[in-house]
Amino acid sequence: MKKEVTKEVAIFKLSAYCSTAEHCLSEVQKKLDAWNLSEKDANAVIDYLLKEKFVDENRYALAFAREKMNFAHWGRNKVAFSLRNKHIPADFIKNALDEVFGSEDYDNSIAQVLEAKFRSITYKNKFDAKAKLLRFGGGRGFEFSKMQPIVDKLVANIKSTGFDDDF
Length: 167
What we know:
Layout: H1 7-20, H2 25-34, H3 39-51, H4 57-70, H5 76-85, H6 90-101, H7 104-120, H8 126-140, H9 144-155
Helix pairs in contact: 1-3, 4-5, 4-6, 5-6, 7-8, 7-9, 8-9
């Protein structure tokens, strides 16, 4: 059963909610839906939160991208996918991705994550090691073009079995 909340209480609660951490409109909308607020009142609450800068989709996209790159070590593709799922406008996503993932820190992060994974995997040959690293990096959302030279460097010293020299 959904709780019923008045417009004033919703503004108070959501102002406090948005003051503690960055939140996007889709997260705010889920809260409003759970409170069984009328569409007119829900729109008034959202308008207030936007006007008073409690919610800012561009700021949210930047914070989300920075956090996921620095702490979760996600790649550009995974962050973009997550932001699209949160209904962030495409221009804000592009802005956040360009700002956060256009740096040398991102390339260093990819190298660190792949090196750590390389030390922890078991493999039969170069092909097996390369496949595991690329699959892992793809799951993290790293771009193939950025992973490939790093992976090639990591697997270069693995003894060849003869059939996998071309990989």
